[in-house]
Design goal:
Helix 3 runs parallel beside helix 4 and helix 7 crosses helix 11. The protein folds into two domains: about 240 residues, Aspartate Aminotransferase, domain 2; about 130 residues, Aspartate Aminotransferase, domain 1, CATH 3.90.1150. The chain is built from eleven helices and twelve strands. A hairpin with a 2-residue loop joins strand 6 and strand 7. Strands 1-9-8-5-4-2-3 form a seven-stranded mixed β-sheet, with helices on both faces. By secondary structure, it is α/β, with parallel strands linked by helices.
């Protein structure tokens, strides 16, 4: 075994520094730490960045997805089509309404929802939620055309997709609603947080109201010099608002998002070049006509050419002080979905097969060239020691 690096390399770390600290300190000293003027500034800047008419800041991408479904009137017994190859939030928000998530298998190349399988699942569906897995854009035009034929809305789960470009356009203003995540591991972070983007005035208004208890006007204005104490509750809403403290991080991170992406792209290129000659590995797919966000670098193993399985591969990386993860355990494999809907692993064979051989390597802008060298050395050494 090759000697491990001296210290553990985490799978992901946020890229925050003095500029973020100064912005947060400024908010602390202002005395306005909950939802207020900094949130509005962040929303305006984010909407301008992605080219959307509206951006509504919330405390998670889960909240954004939930609000989007509420705004389109999802109710008990309705159907929403999505992918099993995603994180829990994408489908669980459908269940919040006692609606039914309908899974469609994924493409073996991108691991995104397969439009070729979509039409048959869309009958009677209220919406479809495609996911841009790892930051590679899904075949959105095909998905939108199918949804339009069925009178369904398209709500993009873009938790991985900042800054993803489809052709020359950023993901964020291409569908009915687009939902982003600013969780600690994402391309930019507010610690916890999310953003809902839309060009639909009515959807934006509804989501803004429902994100803060169903109050008819921005509650923070009640405490401003030009505000009023009076407000009305128009619906039983939620506590999904983002704080000014989090938005302060977001304002700075948004200024850095393209530079952070450029570093992740460079790391992806180094991985791609290093692993090109290894028949035991399958490198992630990307279409050069579009911009991959490189939120994840999803390596896949040709297990028939290796003398260890995926779990052992991850263990070998850890022994060499390299953090790694797996994306994703398909939703239909989890007890809730198995027991509620009777799913078997083979019901979505592509998702099931690809999950068993996927390993996500570290890829974030704080990584040094030496860190990247260590990851490459660990992966190539494991392959050399365990190839058949």
């Amino acid at each position: 075994m090759t000697p491990p690096r001296a210290s553990f390399l985490p799978f992901a770390l946020p890229d925050v520094g003095d500029e973020e600290a100064r912005e947060v300190t400024e908010v602390l000293r202002s005395g306005w730490v909950t939802t207020g003027p900094k949130v509005r500034e962040f929303e305006q800047q984010f909407a301008a960045y992605v080219g959307a008419r509206h951006a509504v800041a919330v405390n998670s991408c889960t909240a954004a997805l939930h609000l989007a479904l509420e705004a389109i009137g999802l109710g008990p017994g309705d159907r929403v089509v999505t992918t099993p190859y995603t994180f829990a939030a994408t489908a669980e928000v459908i269940r919040y309404f006692q609606a039914t998530p309908v899974f469609v298998d994924v493409e073996p190349t991108t691991l995104n929802l397969d439009p070729a399988r979509l039409d048959a699942a869309m009958a009677g569906a209220k919406a479809v939620i495609p996911v841009h897995v790892a930051g590679e854009p899904c075949r959105l035009a095909e998905i939108q055309a199918i949804a339009a034929r069925h009178g369904a809305k398209v709500i993009e789960d873009a938790a991985h997709a900042l800054p993803t470009r489809l052709g020359g356009r950023l993901i964020g203003a291409l569908s009915d609603v687009t939902c982003f995540s600013f969780y600690a591991t994402k391309s930019m972070t507010t610690g916890e947080g999310g953003m809902l983007c839309t060009d639909d005035d009515a959807v934006a208004d509804r989501c803004r109201i429902m994100s803060l208890h169903g109050i008819s006007r921005d509650a923070w204005k009640r405490y401003m010099a030009d505000g009023s104490w009076y407000y009305e509750i128009v619906a039983p809403g939620y506590k999904y608002n983002l704080t000014d403290l989090a938005a302060a991080l977001g304002v700075v991170q948004l200024r850095k998002v393209d530079a952070m992406w450029a570093r992740r792209r460079d790391i992806a290129r180094r991985y791609h070049d290093a692993f090109a000659g290894l028949a035991e590995l399958e490198r992630p797919h990307f279409d050069p006509a579009h911009q991959h966000a490189w939120h994840l670098y999803m390596l896949r193993l040709h297990l028939d050419r290796l003398g260890l399985d995926r779990a052992a591969f991850v263990t070998e990386l850890k022994r060499r002080n390299i953090g790694a993860s797996v994306h994703f355990i398909p939703l239909h494999l989890h007890p809730y979905y198995r027991e509620t809907y009777g799913y078997r692993p083979e019901d979505f064979p592509v998702a099931w097969r690809e999950y068993q051989r996927e390993v996500s390597l570290p890829i974030y802008s704080r990584m040094t060239d030496a860190d990247v060298d260590d990851v490459i050395a660990a992966v190539t050494a494991i392959v050399a020691e365990h190839r058949r």
